[in-house]
Specification:
The chain is an alpha/beta fold. The protein is built from five helices and six strands. The termini are far apart.
Amino acid sequence: MLSIKVKIIRGYEFGTKASIVTTKTTGIIVGVSAHKTNIHDSKTLQAVLGNATSNRQTPIAEAIGDRGYRGTKEVLINNHTTIISIPGTVLKKDTKKEKDIKREKFKRRAAIEPIIGHLKSDYRMARNYLKGFIGDEINLLLAASAFNLKKWMNIYFYAVFIQDASSLLRAISELQKALVLIQYLLILKRVYSKS
């Protein structure tokens, strides 16, 4: 299951709307999408979930979103249906187990708020210095890549500290993938800023 969030703070805010998809357990960003126009949140699901699905080997079965995604129950991506779970009021007919499942899902959904805050403050998403919509997309991809690289570096140093070989090997392979992606994005940024 994945968490999705689109954040616009003020109605008069300028800029590009960005959607972010993270994993439920680790908080790794698996998909991002920038949107040219200020469309409704439920209309952004196809693009961002399509991006997240292309980055994973397995299709996404369920995505957890906030109340801004009302109106969309499921999204069809590559002939696979992804169910959209949106928080609602607890029903009287719900059993204790159903209430606990709902509570757990939507507690994890709230974990994406700090990720958005970190992307804005620590990874330069508050202001973009690249020109146009392509610059917005490059900035979003670089910020998400840097966020993931920092997470994998933390796992790597933790694995070194506790001397866990399997976590260390996994972290090294993920760090290598992230470094290749960041190098590619930096080349794109250089080429784009020269033109």
